[in-house]
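Standup notes, protein team

Yesterday: finished cleaning the Pseudoxanthomonas spadix set.
Today: Glutaredoxin structure.
Blockers: none.

Input for Glutaredoxin:
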Amino acid sequence: MLVLERIQAELDAHPMVLFMKGTPEYPMCGYSSQAVHALLAAGADGLRAINVLEEPEIRANLPRFSNWPTFPQLFIHGELIGGCDITLELHESGELARIVAEALPK
């Protein structure tokens, strides 16, 4: 499977995907850590996280796929929401909790 097809398959299979450095339990950069904390605080218990440090092909190709140069990258229902700054802004405004609740029904 080509890497772009693999990225698309992940997005098709999971309502919410965070491409990050490290894992939610062990984030390997401050931005990924902040995004995970915001998502978990917003109730994203079913979050699918992809560690781009262990997936060099995804790390190299995702910026071209999404037209977003940095990590983390949050996708909901296959659409790029953004990186750390946008995730934090959505959390601070209360929108992230609503988005998460709609994307990950209990």
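Follow-up from PR in the comments: Helices lie at 3-13, 30-41, 56-66, 84-93, 95-103.
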